[in-house]
Amino acid sequence: ENDRSPLFDFLAPLFVDLLKTMAPPQALRCHLQNEVPPELILEFLRAQWLAAFPGWLPTPWRWEALKFVYANGSPGMLALTQAILDAISAKIIQLRGIEHIFPFLTANKPRDASVAR
Question: Which domain of life is it from (predicted)?
Answer without folding.
Answer: Eukaryota
